[in-house]
Amino acid sequence: MTNPTAAILVIGDEILSGRTREANAYHLAGRLVQVGIDLVEIRVVPDDHRAIVDGLHALSAAVDHVFTSGGIGPTHDDITADAVAAAFDVAIDVREDARAMVAAAVGDRRLTDDHLRMARIPEGATLIANGISGVPGFSIGNVHVMAGVPSIFVAMLDAVLPSLGSGEPVVSREVRFEVGEGRIATPLRRLAAQHPRLSLGSYPFADGRVFGTNIVVRGTDPAAIDAAVAQLEELRGSLG
Amino acid sequence: MTNPTAAILVIGDEILSGRTREANAYHLAGRLVQVGIDLVEIRVVPDDHRAIVDGLHALSAAVDHVFTSGGIGPTHDDITADAVAAAFDVAIDVREDARAMVAAAVGDRRLTDDHLRMARIPEGATLIANGISGVPGFSIGNVHVMAGVPSIFVAMLDAVLPSLGSGEPVVSREVRFEVGEGRIATPLRRLAAQHPRLSLGSYPFADGRVFGTNIVVRGTDPAAIDAAVAQLEELRGSLG
């Protein structure tokens, strides 16, 4: 496939400690499929400067677009913006347009030094607006730095996605088998070889006492997908 | 902290394509907190040999225990065992004890070459039994290779966890503020400095139209946690 690639770096002790179930990578995955950008890695790291910088270096070199989630608020554990500046080796300071957005969100009279931390933007970045909190994220190089609060992450993604190049949307269809993977592995292997441009994923499930298998056919060519699904349905019929 | 560290490598196109919401890393995170092992990275990669090998190399060098999830079934897209063997540079073949377990699970008369793929175990590995499917995972070096089906992953983790060294269980308590992070960032920063052995996480939330903040105090010393929580409750009271 020649679609653009993406990765997400989720910054959050709350995910790694089991307190919170990750939601933003899941949302991002669903959105990127629709626009034909291939998500090739999800990485969750702690609120730790070194871990964030290392993750940014690795992912921004490996894929076309890196999204980050979390760590851009006003408190002592919000260290993402500084880590991004360090990763790109640029200065970071309060920027006037970001300050105006934060002031509008918080109210000028209540604005504290902590609030102003949210207006600290690495040099050369472009702001990402959002209509939920009003406090901006930012893009620098191929990295898009977004909030961890899911409703704000969603709004920032809506703002940034149209500006990214997109590829061919990936379509998927699913055929459910009420037998274990082992019963259909051989014909499935043959089918996968017949359709080199499609991805055939085999996902076993345990549904009460029944072991079954969902076969997911993915690709960018609807006619080829339909043909593979027809073959799978024929296979399912032949199992009786 | 001197607790042992862990990471999980989730192998699965189905997560990256947005089809499935990841569940095993979330379960693992909750379990590791209880036994005092610090989960320091979650990484999700595709069903791709190179991506799995690279992930294994990076994570097994960085942490004490690596768990993998997914890709150990009988179908063409189940390539985890081979990637693990390649990462450790050891041979892989059908092993008699694993073959017996697979045969017991599937039924000897129905056993196919595809089923036998599940009995291919890298040289030097130890099997991980599970009472759900009967098909084993395995441990090699500091890597524990487990199934992607959540009920089987849970059973394998139950089997392997008691054999790992554990640390001091991490306890957490939460104080909810009905104000945004900016209002409490300054006292919170002071409190975090007063309790260097505790982790104070600040998690903003948007609950309908209310922006609030959950402060999570984490650590291994219950008395210190109680003291910090009392200070947070006093702070909350002072906000009126």
Oligomer type: homodimer
Regarding CATH, which class of the largest domain in chain A?
A: Alpha Beta
CATH architecture of the largest domain in chain A, please? 3-Layer(aba) Sandwich
Which whole number gives the mean pLDDT of chain A? 94
Helix and strand content put the structural class of chain A at: alpha/beta
For the biggest sheet of chain A, the summary is: 6 strands, mixed
Uncertain runs of chain A = none
Largest interface: A-B, 73 and 73 residues
Query: Order of strands across the widest beta sheet of chain A?
Result: 2-1-3-8-7-6
The count of DSSP E runs of length 2 or more, i.e. the number of strands of chain A, is: 11
Q: Tell me the overall shape of chain A.
A: elongated
Number of domains of chain A: 2
Helix fraction of chain A by DSSP (H/I, runs of at least 4) = 40-55%
Any idea what the CATH superfamily of the largest domain in chain A is called?
A: MoaB/Mog-like domain
Indicate the radius of gyration of chain A in whole angstroms.
22 Å
Strand content of chain A: 25-35%
Summarize this, please?
Two copies of one chain form a homodimer. By secondary structure, chain A is α/β, with parallel strands linked by helices.
